[in-house]
Amino acid sequence: MPARGATDDERDPNVNDRRFARALVTGASSGIGAAIAAELAARGTDLVLVARNEEKLQTLATELSAEHGIAVEVLPTDLTETGALRAVEERLRGTEAPVDLLVNNAGVGQVGRFEELDIDVAETQIALNVLAPLRLTHAALPNLRQAGGGVLNVSSIGANQPVPRMATYAATKAMLTSWTEALHEEMRGTPVHITVLAPGFTRTGFVGAAEAEGAAGHIPSFIWSDAAAVARAGVDGVTARRAVVTPGPIYRLSGAVSSATPSNVTRRVIGTVMRFTGD
C-alpha cells in the first residue's frame, strides 16, 4: 500500500475526463481560490464566487467574464455566520442554473502557542475549515448526483502530521483530508467524485492573514509553490476523479517520509522548526 501523500492517487480508468458546467468556489477573492476560479473559467466553466470581500469578487467576476465569455455570479458571504452559510447551502440546492462542481477552498489559519491565542479565532477556524465544507457538500450532493458532478476540497500537507504552533489549523485540515478520502470511497460507483487537494507552502495572502510573516521569511524560496500551478493540479485532479492531489514532487516526497516516520519523531522535529521560525 503506498504511503499517504507519496503520489497522487491514480485516476479512475472507467471514467472519462469532463468539463464542468458551473462551479461554486468559496474563498474565491484571492489566493488559491481565485486561481481555481481562473483555471475553471479558462476551461469554459460558469462560476458562482463566494467570499467576504464583495469588491474583490466583483473585480474578479468582471475580469473572468470579459476574458473567457462565461457567466459569473457573485455571493458576498461570511461562511462563519450561520445565516450566510445557510444561504449558500440553498444556492447549492437550487435547480435553476445548478452547480455541478463545489470547490471548498475558504480557510483560515492561526500561528502561535495555543494557550496564548484568541480562542474565538480558533473556533472560527473550525467553523470555516470544517463545518462549512461539511454543510455545503451535504447541500450540494443531490444536484451533483443528478449532474454527475464533483467536489474539490482544499486541504494542506499540514494534514499529514501534528503541527505545533499551528495545532488547530493542522487538525482541521487532517479532518478535512480524512473526511474527503472517506467520501471518495462512499461515492465510488456513483456519478459523484470527491477530491482533496493538499498543497504545501503556496504564495497567497494566507501568510499575512495568519500573521505568520516571520515564520514564512525563514522558508527557502524553492519550497514555495505558485497558486496557478496548484489550482491547475487541483482542477485536473477532480476532473480525472482522483481522490488525493499533492502538487509538486517535494511535497509528495515529504508526505512519503512523514507517513513512514514515527509520529513522536515528526512531532518533535516540526515543533523545533516552528519554534525557530516563530522567533
CA radius of gyration is 18 Å
Separation, N- and C-terminal Cα atoms: 39 Å
The CATH C-level class name: Alpha Beta
Give the overall form. globular
β content, as a range? Answer: 5-15%
Helix content: 40-55%
- If you consult CATH, what is the topology? Rossmann fold
Structural class, please? Answer: alpha/beta
**Sheet with most strands: strand arrangement:** 3-2-1-4-5-6-7
Major pleated sheet: 7 strands, parallel
Strand tally is 7
Count the domains.
Answer: 1
Q: Pick out the low-confidence regions.
A: 1-7, 207-220, 251-279
Order of helices and strands: EHEHEHEHEHEHHHEHH
Secondary-structure blueprint:
Blueprint: E1 22-26, H1 31-42, E2 46-51, H2 54-68, E3 72-76, H3 82-93, E4 101-104, H4 119-147, E5 150-154, H5 167-186, E6 193-197, H6 206-209, H7 213-216, H8 227-239, E7 244-245, H9 249-260, H10 263-278
Parallel strand pairs: 1-2, 1-4, 2-3, 4-5, 5-6, 6-7
Helix pairs in contact: 1-2, 1-8, 3-4, 4-5
